[in-house]
């Protein structure tokens, strides 16, 4: 693997946790390995590893985009990652208010429901 992959892998593990990253690599090597390499180098190595935006703010941006686009599975994943990036429930509320105004109330309403579920799971130790 490349140096960019290694950098991205370290950032991805720090943000999403080892368990998630390990699960993502346990799939079909023909279908999954090229995709994992792509996102690890591009998303995590080239974008998330930049030091221009702190992880908390990068996490909030990501949550806003995922909520606004209705990507609920990835939204759940990145809401869980807030525990590792420092984005708080209060930060996520502010994000959802922006989502409501700029992407629509139905998108924000769904995302708030998901956030409520995810944070409850994390507080119960199920996350």
TrEMBL record:
Question: Which SUPFAM superfamilies does the record cross-reference, listed alphabetically?
Answer: AhpD-like
What is an example of a GO molecular function annotated in this UniProt entry? peroxiredoxin activity
Top-level taxon: Bacteria
Per the database record, which ranges form the Carboxymuconolactone decarboxylase-like domain? 35-117
Under PANTHER family, the record lists: 4-CARBOXYMUCONOLACTONE DECARBOXYLASE FAMILY PROTEIN, CARBOXYMUCONOLACTONE DECARBOXYLASE-LIKE DOMAIN-CONTAINING PROTEIN
For this entry, the protein name equals 4-carboxymuconolactone decarboxylase
What organism, scientifically named, is this protein from? Rhodovulum marinum
